[in-house]
Amino acid sequence: MARSTLTKKPKPFLTWSLGPVLAVDCQTPVLKPTQETPSKPLKLSKRSNNHKTSISTAKKGLLSPSHKMHKLNLEVSPHRAVSAVRLMRIEFGGAFADLLNEKGKGSGDNEMGYVERTLGFRTRDLDDRDLRLVTDIVGGTIRWRRYLDHLIGSLCHDECMFRSMEPLLLQILRIGFYEIVKLNMPPYAVVDENVKLAKVALRPGAGNVVNGILRKLVLVKENNSLPLPKLEGDSRAQARALATLYSHPVWMVRRWTKYIGQEEAIQLMMWNNSDPSFSLRANAAKGITRDDLVMRLNSLKVPHEVSLHLDDFVRVKIGLQNVIRAGLLKEGLCSVQDESAGLVVSVVDPQPGEDIIDCCAAPGGKTLYMASRLRGKGKVHAIDINKGRLRILKETAKLQKVDGVVDTIHADLRTFAENSPTKSGKVLLDAPCSGLGVLSKRADLRWNRRLEDMEQLKNLQDELLDAASTFVSSGGVLIYSTCSIDPEENEDRVEAFLVRHPEFRIDPVNRYVPSDFVTKQGFYFSDPVKHSIDGAFAARLVRAL
Ligand SMILES: C[S@@+](CC[C@H](N)C(=O)[O-])C[C@H]1O[C@@H](n2cnc3c(N)ncnc32)[C@H](O)[C@@H]1O
After folding, report:
1. Which tens digits make up the pLDDT trace of 368-397?
2. What is this model's ipTM?
3. CATH number of the domain at 278-336, please?
4. Distance (Å, whole) CA 412 – CA 431
């Protein structure tokens, strides 16, 4: 990855879990209905908890659904209560950190429902400002978790106190630390508010703990003596220090240091820790041009810039919430799609009349963009193993008026390839991958990925490449893509494939994407730091005649 100056990204307009209508990008979390059902209990298995905590209260609510709690607490700041509960649900309940919701305002009601069931009280309703604060606090607290925990651990009486801290208390402390250290908010207001939350949500003693530790933090911050590790010692020690300072898993730091060097690894981590930005794709299949979309954004007073690389794309700086409220996504007039994914479609270069096999298609970001570029002529055959995600793809295709050129096949690509004589001149394999290129958008992903996953993913990628290649007709092209920046999932997979399949050769992507995105080997690569979009990779592999 090339070195470049980091551009300061604008504040995110929203990050609420994407519903089907919005779920269009390859690393976009797609929520199954059950994941957001209010009845899902929190599983607080990681830390033992003998105190009065959320789980007991949550259970009370769950065991007697008819029992309505109306305890209204006007003291506690609503966005902090919601953030704390949201953080618990992300860490223990499998919820996603990226919280986009096409319902806009309705999302506040959902979140308050969780607060009521978990903490046993409601606060006043959330307004737009509260929702933005929840987005900032939840995203930031998750990104900076390792860094914040290091500080909290260092300022606790002893290691044991930190290790055995009850989960909700820890979330409240993380919020307070994040607000003071990273958001530079007025410290004493932050202390007061978080103490109040701990007292009401837990018990008075918990408020005292929050008070003591946050006050210590205020002091050390004022004295410029935050207890942070120094970048010194051997490579392992340095990786551990960097992992804390930039809040990433140690294995990622070691891997990036190995591949791109320490300085670039730091820049990448800084990018991953910055607020994500989003792009919108105008949906040509609905007769919407980019100019139309720009006019709509102007009338909604949403600041934006047209993409330098893709004719249908607009970068939105702030105010995506307004786009959602205005119904542009629900009506299928545009979709949220990163330019890095759009450029993969440029590498595929769909032409009207073509039959394209999309091997790992759901939730359909690339399928739908390819379909719109067919201009009503041809077909995209969308295969995926995940029925739920495929259903979302189908619904979105209808909404975006490309269902006439999309058909869906629910199958494991590997068995489907063994039993199907299907051939095509164009096959896309957008493989399951680590998602290491999209860590700025997926705040929690870095904590969910393990080094062991990489080996499993590489094996799966090889198997899927072999399967996808069986569909490619003589002279046809197989496009292999990921949203990873890891060479072992990208270049190395292509290299290994070419050894197994000497009948394929690399077709350089120069004709399809701007030269800035073309690697020496002729692959497409978007570098988050250099290009200010998500990281992605694609290779064109042509089968001999
Ligand atoms: C990176 S995502 C694809 C994203 C999609 N191309 C897009 O742009 O929205 C990878 C997909 O591969 C699917 N998948 C994983 N293993 C598979 C298999 N053995 N056969 C078919 N699909 C598989 C997953 O269900 C997932 O939807």
Report:
1. 999 999 999 999 999 999 999 999 999 999
2. 0.99
3. 3.30.70.1170
4. 13
